[in-house]
Amino acid sequence: MFKLLKEILRTGDATVQYPFAPYEASKDFRGKPEHDAEKCIACAACTIACPPNAIHMETDLDAGTRTWSIDYGRCIFCGRCEESCPTGAIGLTPEFELAVMSKEDLTVKAVFQLDHCRSCGKPFAPLKEVEYVGKLLAQTGGETERSAREEQILHTCPECKRKNDLEQVSRMKIAAQMETSK
Amino acid sequence: MNSPFNAPFTTDGLQAKPPVVSIPDQVAKMKAALLKDIQRSAYVYRVDCGGCNGCEIEIFGTITPVFDAERFGIKVVPSPRHADILLYTGAVTRSMRMPALRSWEAAPDPKIVISYGACGCTGGIFHDMYCVWGGTDKIVPVDVFIPGCPPTPAATIYGFAVALGLLGQKLKTHTHIEQEGESVPVSHPDIPYKLRVALEREARRMAGYRQGRDLVEEFLDQLDAKAAAPLPERMKRFVANQEDPRRAEIFGCLEGIVTQAIGG
User: Where does the 4Fe-4S ferredoxin-type domain lie (chain A) (predicted)?
Assistant: First the structure.
């Protein structure tokens, strides 16, 4: 009996104190994915990567907005969003206390503005994404400032770009040039 | 009587929707009164509606001595007739709808229904499969949702505490609306883009996507650091200081890429 009591005292209490004391999640614990909307460029990489479609994106062309949303109830905490995010806007946190009374509280949304094409005026891509691409291109070219022409091209939708190129080619009269060079 | 067994199905486009059972006002009032001042144990009956067994393993983890849910009087019982709390796991397959409803009927009022795990909450990764209803709330009224795939034992205890009204919920829905002039800076603007991509690719190839990113960020911070010592020397010291041989190996490779980029 005494031996047993001694053994019990030596072993101590194995039970964790949670919820009376905070519970320390282990390193690299995959908890709630936290979205920093200010760092997000609404590129939809996470939407494509998400296996259970917990992350969802909807584009409203009439309002010119794109709405990003995550449903924590559907999330399987795989971290694919974190892997695919080009700006590090979404990342898993050690937060695990996610239980809610109503299902609406499981959804978090972010609304982003779309960029309107400077030629045709139609929305074509999220403004922040276009700006980010511009910055990356400038960095690749070793520039700091964008010229007015570069700015114009950057904010033009692919369709208008194609049309403008064709117009330019027709203005150059390539056919005529080819005949004379013969 | 409000029997869920013979209620008609509704259709939403091509998809059939099972009827959701409703609770009478009297029972709801009883439940509110009970939860206001619960001074007894809460017995839990586990209903597996087509889960993968991951959630069950975590529930068993919760009742082990390490997490010891019995401290709070939470005990897993083998019959719904003993239960105060019904714990639904799994995405609710078509064939498990009836057994799930039977156990719901068998549990005495007032009862608390908990949706457990990603599948229980919304159908999880199985949400769009032909054979599931996608979530417990599609068939019975749910009081608390515990997301997770599976929820850890600590998350389970937190969920029970929320269900019994001991702790408040932390998660709140919110919508961020983009402000005028919000823009994202390019990270590490002083490092050439091509070099950064090459480093990221190599680190992710060697350490996997997630850890690779962490490692390459650490390395890029080293490159960015403003210090008196010249870059090759600093990198050599950084690699030599690594205690973990795996990290040293990866950083060594990254150093090779940088050296090549500088030399070439």
Answer: 31-60, 66-95
